[in-house]
Specification:
Radius of gyration: 26 Å
Number of helices: 9
Largest sheet: 6 strands, mixed
Structural class: alpha/beta
Distance between the termini: 46 Å
Number of strands: 18
Strand content: 25-35%
Order of helices and strands: EHEEHEEHHHEHEHEEHHEEEEEEEEE
């Protein structure tokens, strides 16, 4: 990559923080026992290197504490690396923390001038952009009120509107787009695409992989202070979700091994009910090639494997599944009776496999209810939220599931 094409260059950057273990709570204690202060040094970044081309948008992903937000703060020069070098070419605009740089007693209008001045604009330049900033923020009715009276969504609107109107060469964003209503988020995404098309380099930290896939050309997965993988968001985000899914499964297994849950406690939690003649033991999800995972792309087949135990034979057994979004809205449901599976009896421990073909659920997290019933709906073991799956989508369509469609204009 030619040097004049690079907007951001990060080379072998390390960063550590001191975490004090016995710091006194009061000033007196700190003065009297200052020599007893103990701390451990935590290395957040262990030598990361990457380049970002001019006009490229990249997403930094990883679990909490992996070092992605620290990386972004180093890029903004809020803090500096212990070793290594960071080079940025051009004017930098950042949205790192909600309302950072805003004075609560100043009006929105006054804070626009202050914030834009921090980004390097002259008063004349701010005057020329003021109307555009206010119009984009949709805060004209509140712009002369103190910002301490603003909601978090209004803070975000104002901060984002300033940051994108300073004609920056590089825009840095940390999780800020999680705030605000759906309409304004869509407006922000469209604006980011617009300024990206104009040549602005964008770096985003977000736990919302859907946002990353909509905006970014590349994902960089930071894991324990190192770059674990980088590449097209659709590939790297799925690798990351697979990893997180495996970690959650390991934690769940460890928790189950450490403390056996009784039927009574499960019933008290309101997640399971039924006669108890048979019990759902475990639910797992697999891709078509047999890889156990909980993250899938739209249109993929999903194989669910349900292990169950039998205490007392169940005549005329029925197995069912329900798919719900996080708001509890049922997206789909069926069972072996609806699907006209011949009557059967379960009288010993076993496994049932359910293959969901070409699942068209839109991006998001979904809960699966799994049920064993008898006859015409008598619950044997109804297990709410027995398993979670995550659907990955880079598209912008809205709703619960995708409907294949075409457009045809008659002119």
């Amino acid at each position: 990559m030619a040097e004049n094409e690079i907007a951001i260059e990060v080379r072998d950057v390390t960063k550590s923080f001191k975490v004090y273990l016995d710091k006194g709570a009061q000033l007196k204690e700190r003065l009297l026992f200052r020599k007893r202060s103990k701390y451990e040094e935590r290395k957040v970044l262990r030598g990361i290197s990457f380049d970002v081309k001019k006009g490229e948008a990249i997403g930094l992903i990883g679990h909490n504490g992996c070092g992605k937000s620290t990386t972004l703060k180093l890029l903004t020069r809020i803090m500096y690396p212990d070793s290594g070098t960071i080079k940025l070419k051009g004017r930098v605009s950042s949205l790192i923390e909600l309302g950072a740089g805003f004075h609560p007693d100043m009006s929105g209008r006054e804070n626009i001038y202050t914030n834009a001045a921090i980004f390097g604009l002259t008063k004349k330049e701010i005057d020329a952009r003021l109307d555009d900033i206010i119009e984009f923020s949709e805060l004209a009715d509140f712009i002369d009120n103190p910002v301490r009276t603003y909601s978090s969504g209004m803070y975000m609107r104002l901060a984002f509107s300033v940051a994108i109107n300073v004609d920056a060469d590089i825009l840095l964003i940390d999780e800020i787009l999680a705030v605000g209503d759906a309409n304004f988020q869509a407006k922000c995404f469209n604006k980011l695409r617009e300024i990206k098309a104009q040549g602005t380099t964008i770096v985003i930290v977000s736990h919302s992989l859907g946002q990353i896939e909509q905006i970014c050309d590349r994902s960089i997965w930071i894991h324990e202070g190192l770059i674990k993988a980088e590449g097209p968001p659709k590939e790297i985000d799925l690798e990351y979700l697979d990893y997180m899914s495996r970690k959650r499964q390991e934690l769940m297994k460890a928790a189950e091994a450490g403390s056996e849950k009784t039927e009574t406690s499960e019933n008290e939690q309101g997640k399971r009910w039924g006669s108890g003649q048979a019990r759902i033991k475990r639910v797992r999800s697999f891709s078509v090639d047999g890889t156990e995972q909980s993250a899938f792309r739209i249109g993929e087949d999903i194989k669910l494997v349900v292990d169950y135990t039998v205490k007392k034979p169940v005549d005329d057994a029925v197995f069912g599944i329900g798919v719900f979004d996080l708001n509890g809205i049922q997206c789909y449901g069926t069972n072996t009776r609806i699907d006209k599976v011949p009557d059967f009896v379960i009288d010993k421990d076993g496994t049932v496999e359910i293959v969901l073909k070409k699942v068209m659920l839109l991006g998001g997290t979904y809960n699966l209810d799994i049920a064993i019933e008898q006859g015409e709906g008598i619950p044997v073991d109804y297990y709410r939220q027995a398993h979670k799956i995550e659907m990955i989508s880079a598209e912008g369509d809205a709703g619960v599931f995708r409907i294949e469609h075409t457009w045809d204009f008659q002119r």
